[in-house]
Every structure is written in structure tokens, then in C-alpha cells.
Amino acid sequence: MCPGVVAFAGSGPGDPDLLTLKVLKALREADVILFDRLVSAEIMALAHDGAILEDVGKEGFGPSMAQEDICARLVHHAQRGRKVLRLKSGDPTIFGRLDEELTACEAAGVDAQILPGITAASAAVAAIGQSLTQRGRNSSVRFLTGHDMKGFADHDWAQLARSGEVAAVYMGKKSARFVQGRLLMHGADRDMAVTVVENASRADQRVLTTTLETLPADLAAAAFAGPALTFLGLAPRVAVAAAHDKIQMELA
């Protein structure tokens, strides 16, 4: 039997309308779909009825399928001649463990392709009516992870603490106090604007507007349960923020 193929695809932030046409086509044609925990139910409903669906989701500091087991499942199905869709939330090239899975396919002689998707930062910044870069403010933007394989992730805090810098922190809920502490240690303004967008692009999207000084307390009070993207150095544009559900935390 000829070997199958694996497509690594980004399902975007959750709204099915934000799927690319290529990913939608792959959903409708795949024999097997290995999907992440954050892929929305509305998107999974677009798979054809005969597809084999396997939940291989991971959760930071929570229950997860071992990476080697995910790689083994990809190779197993592809070597049986199946069209395999590895469906990740957002874009597969951003904090998606893509390299490990591509390497497993290469080692097994399995053909693979990458289908990009809209990443959470793009959806979240659109929700608050802002842009990730602005002339005269910041000529670069950083995509950071709140934690890595060793725990809370370290970054160039001195650079991030400078006025005008903008960063998007993925998986940053549990690391909020750590990020706050590192930035303050390196001279960041306590009034630095911080915005947290939960469930970006989805019907239950919520936006928290806060500052670096009150970030951990406000985030704890908001009790976000869904995936959240944290912007350092950005506040919602007032006219656009008024059109979205928003959590406003009042200081005691």
C-alpha cells in the first residue's frame, strides 16, 4: 500500500468563518483527524461523517497525551495509506510542537505539508480594534509563550519593559504574576497597559482591560476558563471595545 500523507493545519482561533479554504477542504477530505483540545466543536463538525477522530489534546500543567504517542499515531495512520489531518488551534507554526511531528514524519518517510491558519494574536488584536505594530510606537512585536517545557518561560525582560514595546503572550494565565514580577524588576511602568482576550473570535469572547500592576489580581477575579491571549503594551481602542462584551474590574 502506498503511504498516506499528513497535513499539519491551523484551525484558527475558533470561529469557523476564519478557516482558510485549504483547511476547510482538508477537513472534508481527511480519513483521520488528530485534533487539539482548543479546536472548537463548530470546526470539528465540518469533518465528513466517515472520518476517524482522535483527541490528542494537551493542556499546560494539565492532562496531556505524550508527544511521542501523537507522533506515533500520525505515522501509524499515514503508513496505512490514509489522508491524515493534524489539526491544531491557531497557526501550526506558532507554539504548536510542529517540529517534533514533522521530524517523526520525515524519519518514517511520510510526506507532509503545512496549511497555515490565523493565529490567536491576530484575532485578539482585531477584537480590541488595535494593530500589532504602529509607526512611531513599535517597529517589532514579540510572540511569547507563558511557559515552556521547564516551567515559566524566560525572555528578554529588559527589552520588553521599555516604553512602547508590544508583546502577545500565549498561554499566559498561569504565568501572569511571574511576567509581572520580571517586568517590574527590569523597570517597566506599573501603569503599562495590559489586555487579556479570552476565547478570541468566539461567541463567548471576553476582554479584560487592566495594567501591569493589577494584572494578577484582575485576572484571578475574572476567572477566565477558556484560552486567553495577553497583550503587553496594548489597550482596546475605545470605539471598538464598546462593541464587545468586556470585563471591567473596579479597584476597591
From TrEMBL:
Residues 6-215 form the Tetrapyrrole methylase domain. It comes from the Bacteria. Keywords: Methyltransferase, Porphyrin biosynthesis, S-adenosyl-L-methionine, Transferase. It holds the Pfam family TP_methylase. Its EC number is 2.1.1.107. GO terms for molecular function: uroporphyrin-III C-methyltransferase activity. One of its GO terms (biological process) is methylation. Pathway: Porphyrin-containing compound metabolism; siroheme biosynthesis; precorrin-2 from uroporphyrinogen III: step 1/1. This is uroporphyrinogen-III C-methyltransferase.
